[in-house]
Amino acid sequence: xxxxxxxxxxxxxxxxxxxxxxxxxxxxxxxxxxxxxxxxxxxxxxxxxxxxxxxxxxxxxxxxxxxxxxxxxxxxxxxxxxxxxxxxxxxxxxxxxxxxxxxxxxxxxxxxxxxxxxxxxxxxxxxxxxxxxxxxxxxxxxxxxxxxxxxxxxxx
Length: 156
Fold this sequence. Notes:
With 156 residues, the chain is α+β, with helices and mostly antiparallel strands. It has helices at 3-22, 81-90, 93-96, 139-150; strands at residues 33-40, 47-55, 58-65, 73-78, 102-103, 113-120, 123-130. It has a single domain (30-150), classed as Mago nashi (Mago nashi protein), CATH 3.30.1560. The chain is 29% helix and 31% strand. Strand 6 (113-120) and strand 7 (123-130) form a beta hairpin. The longest helix has 20 residues, at 3-22. Residues 1-23 form the signal peptide.
């Protein structure tokens, strides 16, 4: 009857390993996450307002001209899965959702404005700030958003 203790030991080890793997959850479900980033300059001629939309594996840039009824320029690209995961993992939704909606005086005296909007499931929060003067809480990922934005410099 030695097989019963051996079976119990194997079952116990299996349960421990299964429990370890089930506790390794990701911070967010990346399929539910959508990130938008943009810049605007009110006293400007040309394409002065830009919006970058990022979701899993897809990036889209829309550039708007400061003219009534002007159609936006639209450029799209793919984002490497590792880059998307790195960006998604760098965002602490609890911290972001507690930020104020506006910091400083965005686009005052034509200094420009930047904004970040994060949607997760049915929750959406947008934070706007003076161009180049982001709140400390977004520093872990603002450089990634700006770098992705810069990849579209040839969007015509």
